[in-house]
Design brief:
single chain; rod-shaped; mainly alpha; Helix Hairpins
């Protein structure tokens, strides 16, 4: 195995670990942060805080904060997908380059 092959495999392995961690964090934001914020303003909220200020707080959480967190999740998801596609492109390009070099070597050997 050449040094470049080793480095490419190492980079892909590290990228896989990074993508896995990104997925965990996306799930955490969706399942813990957003869900918790929704619980803040739905479960028992009216029992502890009432009035115009409470209504404004609930509205801001539901109409501003949660949609903004959804936007963050979408950006991170798109980044994740872009990194994954880039890795696939690099692997395919490496395979194509290797095949071209092999084909040229075969042609040269026939001369």
């Amino acid at each position: 195995m050449s040094l470049t092959d080793f480095l490419l495999k190492l980079a892909i392995k590290v990228l896989g670990q990074v993508l896995s961690e990104i997925t965990k964090q996306i799930n955490r934001v969706q399942n813990e942060v957003i869900a918790e914020m929704q619980r803040w303003v739905t479960q028992g909220f009216d029992d502890i805080w009432r009035g115009e200020d409470a209504d404004q707080f609930k509205e801001k959480v539901m109409k501003l904060m949660i949609p903004d967190l959804d936007k963050v999740v979408n950006v991170v998801t798109n980044t994740h997908n872009g990194l994954q596609e880039a890795a696939e492109i690099v692997v395919k390009a490496d395979q194509s380059a290797y095949q071209m070099v092999s084909d040229l070597a075969s042609l040269y050997a026939k001369i």
